[in-house]
Structure prediction request, 118 residues.
Amino acid sequence: QVQLVESGGGWVQTGGSLRLSCAASGRIFSLNAMGWYRQTPGKQRELVATITTAGSTNYANSVKGRFTISGVRDNAKMTVYLQMNSLKSEDTAVYYCNSNMISGNNYWGQGTQVTVSS
Prediction:
């Protein structure tokens, strides 16, 4: 099992920046990839960005060029960051950290609210 702890959400003005962090602990040696997803009321959760343990990244078209996902691993923990720049009102959502395991299982963080407004 993997435990995920998110931080870094909040309110920011349009055009501003935020950085989200997600610390994974537990069976991190069984990780395949980690990522960020987001959800707004009445809509399905959507992919924002993912990073594999080999360092390959994938982004939703809507955030390419504005968001950057990165990861740092030590023996006991893996931390994934999502740097969000040039934020738009449509980026407002609850952001969830995800860990995808080699087994195919997925674990989710508790979610962190990001609000972008003028």
Q: What stands out?
A: Residues 37 and 99 are 11 Å apart (CA to CA). The chain is about 0% helix and 60% strand.
